[in-house]
Amino acid sequence: MPGPQQKGPRRPLSVRGPRPAARSGGNNKVRLAVGRVLLIGALLIAGVKLVQVQGIQAGELAQQAEAQRITNQNIPAERGSILDRNGNQLAFSIEVRALYILPQRARKSWDEARAKDPEQYPLSYEDHSREVAKFISSTLGPEVNGEKTDEESVFKQLVKDISYEVLVSEAEPAKAAKIVGKYPAEIGSEYRSKRIYPNGELASNIIGAANWRQDEKPPTTQGILGLESAQDNLLAGRMGRRVVDTMSGDDTVVIPNTERELVKPQPGKSLELTIDIDTQYAVQRMVSDYVKKSGAKNGSAVVLDSRTGEIVAMANDKTYDPTDFGKANEDQLRNGAVSSSFEPGSVNKIVTAAAAVEYGLFKPDDVLQVPGSLKVADRVIRDAWTHGTVPMSFTGVFAKSSNVGTLMAAQEVGKERYAEMLQKFGLGKRTQSGVPAEEAGVVPPLNQWSGSTFGNLPIGQGLSMTLLQMTGMYQAIANDGVRVPPRLVRAEIGEEGARSEKQRPEGVRVVSAETAKTVRNMFRSVTQSDPRDANQNGTGKAAALPGFQIAGKTGTAQQIDPTCKCYSQSQYWITFAGILPADNPRYVVGIMLDAPNGTQFSSSAAPLFHDIATFLTQRFQVPMSVEQTPFVQLQL
Amino acid sequence: MTAPARVGGSSPRDPSRKKTEDRDKARRRSAGAERAYARRAQRAQNLRGGAAAPQAKQVSKAPFVVLVMLVLGAGIAGIMYFSTQAAADTYRLQEARSEAEKLTLQMEQLRREVALLESPTDLARRATEMGLVEPSNPARLRQNPDGSVEEFGKPSAPTKSTPPPPPSSEPPPPPAGQTPPAGQTTPPAGEQQGQAQGQNPPAGG
Fold first, then answer.
1. pTM of the entire predicted model
2. Which of A587, A588, B115, B125 is the most buried (most CB within 10 A)?
3. Are residues B180 and A281, on separate chains, in Cβ contact within 8 Å?
């Protein structure tokens, strides 16, 4: 800057204005240079740090930051409930808290705090633990679902030399919050869900069981048995996920407004069953009673709505406690009504009756000369009581359950038409009812029939079916010849009660409406009783219900003796299937008793049908039949 | 990065400009005159009392500045107020949420109690405790069109009620499965039929 410097000395002192400018102008160069160096230096340092932070250490630092504040949380999806047909809860979930303790950590921090400030913490850790235990015990009571929470046992756990232990796994959330709020250093709590079965063992073979699985990742409630397992995907819904910022070192303190929901949880759907829980209770009790009375090994009963095929009740004598299924044995876990198949015995004679009437071969009052025995291939078939050749009405053949008479009719029907009829009645195939663990039963295909097969099938031996299939056969006759496959699930209930009815299964026409009506009327005579002439008694007169027309059929089938692989002479399947009322069918009841023995109730399930029917008429206010069953001559 | 030029007015490295300025001044006044002007200006300044000269003009700007300050102040106050409110609302929201959660849990608890009390198992247990029994074999009445009443079936008296089972604090007994209520002994109808059964051959083969 040559100008001002040259001018400077020439200027008088009195001219003050420009002089400071000239002086500062003299430093400008140095200042600028220094400033520049400083600025560039700072910039360089910043640049280097920038590159270091953003480039070299970026990942690591970001991770550290995240670890410090970001916490991933699973948002549990609420598991759907299982309801009966009237909306009564059969199974549902509630939230609970598991309380855990961190004894080592608690002891360490307590001792440290005490060393620093003995006045504030006068108690030793032991004495303090006693206080904590007292509070927990007084809040939770002495026991929570079998886990001891009395003062002494809590105290013992608090002073143990371990790092972590679950104190209570199913504490009420409100009480848990109270405890954790008071002693955050010692006690922690975490979310759990608990499945509640208000009816306990009732219907547990159908509903099944689900429980909390801590070993799942993430932990969740999982269906283990029955419907809970079969429909687990539908019931469970989908877990949601969210990210929150939390205080460093404590993931439970969420910084407000930092919640970022990544995936919304999708609550599970609820299932509405066709079961009526009151009927289920009554039937279950009656079946268990009767199984005891009759000395049977097992017993089951099924009640179907005759018009819709809905399973109103399905009871087995043995059930289990769904909250403690580990203790249940195989027999208790099995739903015998669908997972054990058996030879139905005379109940199967309805197939012959339906086919014979459908093809116009016999009318109810046709008279057959029934001999004492009949030879089919190498087998001689006899009736259950000895007789010579007797004239019986076609109705009488079934009412008195004559094997010989039935086979005579079956031979008129012929093998092909008979086999086809078995198929139409839905035998040998799963019913697709939605009841888990269903069996199909066995019907030998026509091309594998031996000579004696056709002497066995019409009287219900040599083929097997489940109780549900057996009841389904009578449902077809009750429903004017249309068999509606039975079903268990009526509707799915989604969010906010959005209900979607399950589509009704398509009915299968088995016989014409007239045939069905004729067969129903014929089978009413099974419950006929004549005090004057025992020959006119039906085999199931104990099933009769005064005021109602009852159509039904008794059955007795020999079981296979495992020692000789032949038909046993002492072990039977005792069955019964009945339609209530026969003139305007509403319900169909099927009963099976496995090897009842030694009591007056062992020979027939008809009295049990009577009891169940009595209950059903009251429970559903079934109107009485307009006319009583007319008397029919069974044996002439 | 811009060069730190122009800090001290015109660039000293701009000789052409400097020259024109010098030339300008030289043409108008001599150096002495210039100094005289400078002195006069200084005197005038001293007379007016230092640097007060431009004040007269700047007085009119004060209200504007004050206004701007007020507006800014009000703005800041407003922002602070709203952000405080927002924060407070957040806490209130959180409180409300936790309250809602608490109530949901309470509802669940109550729902569970209702379900347990509603269950037929529990109802039956309590009914038995109260000494109620189920009629095993009711008769049915029908009124005919002519007004007469017809009775169907023979009603049988229910079997005696059993003493209520001990302590009700115990969980409900398992459904009939394991321990059928003692009241459910043989229904009379069953007995009759059972006896008659002997005469009847078992069905089927």
1. 0.77
2. A588
3. no
* Identified catalytic residue from A129, A204, A300, A346: A346
Give the C-alpha distances (Å, rounded to integers) separating A343 from A245, A348, A608, B2, B182: 66, 9, 20, 102, 33
A362-378 residue pLDDT tens: 999 999 999 999 998 88
Distance from CA of B54 to the nearest CA of A (A): 18
Residue A384 and residue A397: Cα distance in Å, rounded? 12
Using a CB–CB cutoff of 8 Å, tell me whether A243 touches chain B.
no
What's the average model confidence in pLDDT over A478-495? 94
- pLDDT at residue B67 greater than cutoff 60: yes
A window 259-298, beta carbon within 8 A of B: 277-278, 280-282, 284-289, 292-293
- Furthest-apart CA atoms within chain A: distance in Å: 163
Phi, psi of B95 (to 5 degrees): -60, -45
Contact between B35 and A15 under an 8 Å Cβ cutoff? The reply is: yes
Complex confidence, ipTM: 0.73
Would an 8 Å CB–CB cutoff place A606 in contact with chain B? yes
Beta bridge partners of A166: A100
Is residue A410 within 8 Å of A454, Cβ to Cβ? yes
The answer to whether the CB atoms of A384 and B201 lie below 8 A apart is: yes
Let me know the angle formed at the C-alpha of A39 by A33 and A44, rounded to the nearest 5 degrees: 125
A–B interface: beta-carbon pairs under 8 A: 211
Higher-confidence residue of A502 and B29: namely: A502
DSSP single-letter state for residue B128: H
Q: Residue A520 CA to chain centroid, in angstroms?
A: 35
pLDDT at A279 over 80: yes
Q: Is the pLDDT of residue A630 over 60?
A: yes
Residue A242's pLDDT is what? 86
CB A612 within 8 A of CB A312: no
Query: Per-residue pLDDT for A109 more than 80?
Result: yes
Confidence of residue A252 (pLDDT cuts 50, 70, 90): low
B205 vs A317, A461, A618: nearest CB: A461
Q: How many C-beta atoms lie closer than 10 Å to residue A304's C-beta?
A: 29
Q: Is the pLDDT of residue A515 over 90?
A: yes
pLDDT of residue B156: 80
Question: What is the rounded distance in angstroms from the CA atom of residue B174 to the CA atom of residue A284?
Answer: 11
Identity of the amino acid at A67: A
∠ at Cα B194 (B190, B198), nearest 5°? 165
Enumerate the H helices of A359-485 as residue ranges.
394-399, 403-413, 415-424, 453-456, 467-478
- At A217-246, the pLDDT tens digits run 888 999 999 999 999 999 999 999 888 887
Q: How far apart are CA A508 and CA A425, in angstroms?
A: 8
Kindly tell me the burial class for residue B178, based on how many C-beta atoms sit within 10 Å of its own C-beta (0-12, 13-18, 19 or more).
Answer: middle
Between the alpha carbon of residue A465 and those of residues A356, A442, B176, the distances in Å are 22, 7, 26
- Residue B187 CA to residue A614 CA, distance in Å, equals 12
Select the residue of B120, B184, B196 nearest A202 (Cβ to Cβ). B120
Q: Does residue B92 carry a pLDDT above 80?
A: yes
Res. A350: pLDDT tops 90: yes
Residue A12: pLDDT band by 50, 70, 90 thresholds? low
Report the gap between the CA of B134 and the closest CA in chain A (Å).
10
Tokens 């400077």, residue? Answer: A8
Of the residues B11, B35, B108, the best mutation for testing chain A's interface (the one with the most A CB atoms within 10 Å of its CB) is B108
